[in-house]
Specification:
With 299 residues, the chain is an alpha+beta fold. Helix content is 31%, strand content 41%. β10 and β11 form a beta hairpin.
Length: 299
């Protein structure tokens, strides 16, 4: 961020309408295209290396025309991609500010913006997130993830402002995510949470209940979960220190068990009240968990 303020940065376009920039990244770390001489030298290498491999392959494996043909096709394709990369200067810049986020694509030069998506926190209402780690034969494959940003409710509908569904290959991030796109969206969630928490402080000072929406395939449920003081309301049912028997997280679900709940035959027969809510259905989950941690501490 210090480089942005000093002007010593590769970024030529820096958004000014999303507040102070807190995070920036780019798919292209270069400040400018190569010079004509640099481009010419790279093109020469991009052409001569694949051709040399093809020639060597036909000389050594001259009795395997099928294999040689496959290598030729692959090398020609690699050469084409390499030359194309030498001639093009494109990329995508990512910015997150304290009031929003921007994705800006550039072409030929960094200040020639070819596409731009602006997301203002003032238009947000919920961020819905979910992740699934995939394993095969106990071996990690990848992690699928999604982020969905919902706007304010209008006529009992919520418009999706932006969304992404992708995957990354990092089983144990340990505080840092190598996947650029995921890192950008995770940062949006973090700074949106800070923005929303400032609003919540005002609401709490006014004695208001803080609600969280729940989204399912059937639709969304406004303020399905509400916190007020030392109580939590779930679908209209109030839980507090006097009636909570058990509370835990299991397989990505929030589980709250009322004192009136009982089960028999290994859970096949259940009576009483028990809430099971998948965490990935709760809007603004990062903020919700902060409130829930406080509620749990009052029990």
């Amino acid at each position: 961020m210090a480089e942005l303020k000093s002007g010593e940065t590769v970024f030529k376009y820096i958004p000014e309408d999303i507040g102070e920039i807190a995070y920036c990244d780019s798919t292209n770390p270069k400040a400018a295209p190569d010079t004509k001489e640099q481009t010419r030298n790279k093109i020469i290498l991009s052409v001569t290396i694949p051709l040399a491999i093809v020639a060597l392959c036909w000389i050594i494996f001259n009795e395997s025309p099928i294999f040689d043909s496959i290598v030729t096709i692959v090398m020609l394709f690699i050469g084409y991609i390499s030359v194309n990369n030498c001639l093009n200067f494109t990329g995508t810049d990512y910015f997150v500010g304290i009031e929003g986020a921007v994705v800006a694509g550039f072409d030929k030069t960094r200040d020639n913006i070819s596409s731009k998506t602006v997301m203002y926190f003032r238009d947000f209402d919920d961020i819905l997130t979910g992740e699934t780690r995939k394993y095969k034969n106990r071996s990690y494959q990848c992690t699928d993830y999604h982020f969905i940003i919902y706007g304010h409710e209008v006529d009992n509908q919520r418009k999706v402002i932006a969304s992404v569904a992708d995957s990354y290959d990092q089983e144990k991030p340990r505080g840092y995510y190598t996947d650029q796109k995921y890192r950008f969206w995770k940062t949006i969630e973090s700074y949106w949470s800070q923005y929303r928490l400032e609003q919540i402080k005002v609401e709490l000072a006014a004695g208001e209940a803080i609600g969280f929406n729940v989204y399912t395939e059937k639709g969304f449920y406004n303020d399905y979960i509400m916190f007020k003081g030392k109580e939590i309301s779930i679908g209209g049912k109030i839980y507090n220190k006097s009636n909570v028997k058990n509370i835990n997280f299991n397989n990505g679900n929030l589980i709250i068990e009322d004192v009136n709940h009982s089960s028999k035959l290994f859970g096949l027969i259940e009576k009483g009240d028990k809430e099971i809510i998948p965490l990935h259905t709760i809007g603004n989950r990062e903020i919700f968990l902060k409130f829930f941690q406080y509620f749990a501490s009052t029990l």
